[in-house]
Amino acid sequence: MTDTGKDSVIIHAPKECYLPIDDTPKIGSDSAQVKITLFVDYECPYCSNLIHDVYNDLSKTYIKTGKVQLIFRDYPLSFHENAFKLSLYAHSAYKKGEFELFNKAVWELKMGDFEDLKQWNDKNLSVDELKQFSDLIHENKKLGRAAGITGTPSIVINNLLFEKENTKEKLFESIDNALSNNYSIQSKHNLCNESI
């Protein structure tokens, strides 16, 4: 869904964009050949659909085999009342080493029912942690905007931005292409930061 609240079905041609590999929630090996960055709003039904459609196969085929690391970047949309709060919960879970548990729980929620996430809620964070995580969330959204992202979910595979992938097969084909081309992350130069 776009930040304007309208659905978007346009698939953009890949655009190169370098994203730093930093302390943002991730699943999988740091040495994975392919880095998939997923810009998400934890309250977005399209993000939930994407996770439900692809995560189990993605995890089994690529993440658990060490080929892919899945990186989650916050892109809370302004019209989702709890999106920012859920991003705080995600960072809290990641700091505790419980992000995979959070990731499974958050996408199973009925929106507005946060009882299952209480162990990660913002009431358990110090003032310093709240500031640190809030800053990270704002920075992730700035990176997304600079990369041309306007809605969620948005996917970056080894520096190539795909705003929408229309099928699981197309996504996995893109991952296989990245693996076969031995296309590696170039984290020293970040084109996204130049626009911020």
Automatic annotation (TrEMBL):
Transmembrane segments: none annotated. InterPro entries: Thiol:disulfide_interchange (IPR051470), Thioredoxin-like_fold (IPR012336), Thioredoxin-like_sf (IPR036249). Residues 24-176 form the Thioredoxin-like fold domain. SUPFAM superfamilies: Thioredoxin-like. It holds the Pfam family Thioredoxin_4. This is Thioredoxin domain-containing protein.
